[in-house]
Write a sequence for this structure.
């Protein structure tokens, strides 16, 4: 307000000065114009006398800066000291010439806006009826403005200084009582303020009370909303009708891998997937889409916010469906792999049985085919048993309570069980550890874990190789490691060996009777015991798998 008052007073003074300058300039201009016409009239009279005395010869000899034009009674130009008279048009229609023909003399002014100059014309009739016109150019800047430059600048400077001083003092005096108002205690200021402001202060006091109540209500609602959205595992984003983010929770930042800036703002709308689903919602259509972000599958559900028939924004809910999508993919892969794995032995059994049924084989071949049928059926039984076992582990393992079991004794029993198979391949077992090594667990599941680890170590070992089984107690855990010196696992395949039916070398696995489910059973069995699995392998040198069981 103080600046506005200061500006108003200053502009008022400057406005008054400008009006005075315009008025004075107009008067001076009129006076100078009249003076210029009088001077031009005297020059014209002298020239007329010279023409009447000497004729055209006078005009040719006279030296002047003014333009002299001699015009015949019919308007034809007889002489012009600046232009060729024969090439000039008829001047009978010129206002000053017409006045001279009619009244004996005439005058006129032509103004050029481009040059900011006026041309003054004065015409006088001679005794023979012809007219002599004399004209001169009057520059407003040269004649009028230049002499006034310094006085005007001095006047403007004085007015500016004076108006600045007066405006500063007056504005401070007017504003001081207003600036001294304590808006937190308005009832104490009524005696010291202008009476005209008392109703205004009362309204402010009422507004302050209303605003405080609204702020409290908004804070309470915001706290409730923050408590709800802050504890949601789902991402929540609210946008306006321009897709600008108004509100979001921490889960949204985590799922979209976004980081807010120093002001707490977050450029979530820079995400391409976010713009796609939000754009559909802002067009009034509900949108659902599953998008992969940073290795996670996120389901976006965008719903338009409609008020009074207009879309005012969008609500976007983000669900992490990574596990669901992975389970769905595993289910599809599992179904496809089971179908394939079951089809292979069944096809072989069906083929051998058909040959035997048709009687196309000799007795010796019949015995050989019967052996093949038996081997394929045994393979089929092992596969079915592994599938059933995996299904049981998927549902939380067997309905057995954990008990104290000796892990060393279980490992020893497994070694005894696999030793005949290992000796056929010239593979030797080495078992190291403290006896007994007690942990809490389900004996049957632990036996399957060790059996599958040792079975793979034998199958994928080299002739005269070794399988090292170690049990080590360390920092509240028991580490069970099974190490072989076999073919090893390529680096690219190490992240997938625990998937169902995954085989690094499918042809070699079929030769040794592998189903591709052994390490999957190990993984699920370890999960039932809250154990951690570590894999170390180098192609051509061997593999070491460690299962770390917590003691409690």
């Amino acid at each position: 307000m103080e600046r506005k008052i200061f500006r108003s007073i200053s502009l008022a003074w400057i406005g008054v000065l400008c009006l005075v300058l315009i008025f004075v300039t107009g008067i001076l201009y009129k006076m100078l114009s009249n003076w210029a016409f009088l001077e031009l009239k005297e020059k014209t009279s002298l020239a007329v006398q010279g023409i009447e005395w000497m004729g055209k010869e006078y005009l040719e000899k006279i030296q002047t800066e003014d333009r002299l034009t001699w015009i015949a009674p019919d308007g034809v130009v007889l002489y012009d000291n600046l232009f060729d008279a024969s090439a000039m048009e008829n001047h009978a229609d010129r206002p000053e010439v017409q006045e001279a023909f009619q009244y004996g003399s005439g005058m006129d002014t032509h103004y050029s806006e481009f040059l900011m100059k006026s041309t003054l014309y004065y015409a006088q009739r001679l005794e023979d009826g012809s007219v002599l016109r004399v004209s001169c150019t009057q520059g407003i800047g040269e004649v009028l403005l230049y002499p006034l430059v310094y006085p005007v600048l001095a006047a403007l400077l004085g007015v500016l200084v004076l108006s600045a001083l007066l405006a500063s003092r007056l504005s401070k005096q007017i504003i001081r009582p207003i600036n001294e108002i304590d808006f937190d205690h308005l009832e104490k200021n009524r005696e010291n303020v202008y009476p005209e402001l008392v109703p205004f202060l009362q309204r402010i006091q009422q507004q302050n009370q209303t605003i405080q109540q609204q702020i409290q209500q908004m804070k309470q609602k915001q706290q409730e909303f923050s408590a709800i959205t802050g504890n949601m595992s789902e991402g929540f984003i609210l946008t306006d009708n321009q897709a600008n983010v108004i509100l979001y929770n921490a889960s949204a930042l985590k799922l979209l891998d976004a980081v807010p800036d120093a002001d707490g703002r977050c450029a979530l709308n820079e995400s391409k997937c976010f713009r796609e689903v939000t754009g559909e919602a802002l067009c009034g259509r509900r949108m659902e889409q599953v998008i992969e972000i940073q290795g996670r599958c996120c389901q976006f559900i965008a719903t338009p916010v409609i008020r009074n028939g207009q879309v005012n924004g969008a609500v976007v809910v983000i669900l992490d469906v990574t596990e669901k999508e992975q389970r769905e993919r595993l289910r599809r892969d599992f179904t496809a792999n089971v179908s394939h794995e079951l089809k292979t032995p069944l096809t072989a059994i069906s083929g051998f049985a058909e040959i035997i049924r048709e009687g196309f084989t000799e007795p010796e071949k019949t015995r050989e085919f019967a052996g093949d049928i038996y081997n394929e059926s045994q393979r089929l039984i092992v596969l079915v048993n592994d599938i059933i076992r995996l299904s049981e582990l998927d549902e939380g393992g067997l309905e057995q309570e954990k008990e104290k079991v000796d892990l060393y004794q279980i490992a020893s029993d497994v070694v005894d069980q696999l030793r005949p198979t290992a000796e056929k391949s010239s593979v030797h077992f080495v078992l190291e550890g403290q006896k007994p090594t007690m942990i809490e667990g389900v004996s049957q599941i632990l036996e399957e874990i060790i059996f599958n680890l040792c079975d793979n170590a034998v199958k994928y070992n080299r002739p005269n190789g070794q399988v090292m089984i170690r049990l080590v107690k360390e920092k509240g855990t028991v580490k069970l490691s099974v190490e072989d010196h076999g073919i090893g696992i390529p680096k690219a395949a190490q992240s997938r060996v625990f998937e169902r039916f995954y085989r690094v070398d499918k042809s070699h696995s079929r030769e040794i009777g592998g189903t591709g489910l052994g390490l999957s059973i190990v993984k699920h069995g370890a999960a039932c015991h809250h154990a951690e699995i570590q894999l170390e392998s180098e192609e051509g040198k061997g593999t070491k798998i460690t299962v770390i069981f917590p003691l409690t």
User: Anything to note?
Assistant: Residues 325-394 form a domain with the Helix Hairpins fold (CATH 1.10.287.130). The CA atoms of residues 234 and 319 lie 5 Å apart. The mean pLDDT is 77. The longest strand covers residues 296-307.
